[in-house]
Amino acid sequence: SSPVPPTMARHTIRSLWLWIFCLPFGLAGAMGPAQVALWTFMICYIFVGIEEVGAQVEQPFEITPMTGLCNVIMFCLDEIFEM
Questions:
Q1: What's the pLDDT tens digit per position in 30-49?
Q2: CA 40/CA 44 separation, integer angstroms
Q3: What is the reported pLDDT for 70?
Q4: Tell me, what's the pLDDT at 63?
Q5: Which pTM value belongs to this model?
Q6: CB of 13 within 8 A of CB of 51?
Q7: pLDDT above 90: residue 53
Q8: Among 10, 29, 53, 77, which one is least packed by beta carbons within 10 Å?
Q9: At what angle do helices 33-58 and 6-27 cross, to 10 degrees?
Q10: Residue 81 to residue 59: CA distance in whole angstroms
Q11: Nearest CA-CA partner of 47 in 20, 21, 9
Q12: Considering just the CA atoms, what is the radius of gyration of the chain in Å?
C-alpha cells in the first residue's frame, strides 16, 4: 500500500497533465511557435520527471530488493549463531 492514497496520486497526475495541456496556450502570446514547443517540452519533461521520482519515492520497497537483502542477512546471521 502507498503512503499517498491512490485517489490523491491520480488527482495530482491529472492536474499536472491539465496544466501541461494549457501551458502552450499561455505561452502562445509571448513567443513564437517553435519556442512554445521547445519550452513546453522542456517544462513537461522536468515536471513529469519530478512526478515520477515522487511516485518511486513513495514505494521504496518496490525499487530496492528488500526481500533478497533480508534473506542474505538472515542466512549470514544463521551461520554466525551456529558456530
A1: 999 999 999 999 999 999 99
A2: 6
A3: 85
A4: 65
A5: 0.63
A6: yes
A7: no
A8: 29
A9: 170
A10: 33
A11: 20
A12: 22
Supply 16's cell numbers.
499536472
**Joined grid coordinates for residue 2:** 502507498
Query: Which residue matches cell numbers 551456529?
Result: 82
- Dihedral, 56, 62, 66, 67 alpha carbons, nearest 10: 170
Digit-coded pLDDT (tens) for 13-24: 899 999 999 999
Nearest to 20 by CA among 43, 2, 49: 43
Give the separation between CA 28 and CA 5, rounded to whole angstroms. 36
Torsion 39-44-46-47 (CA) sign: positive
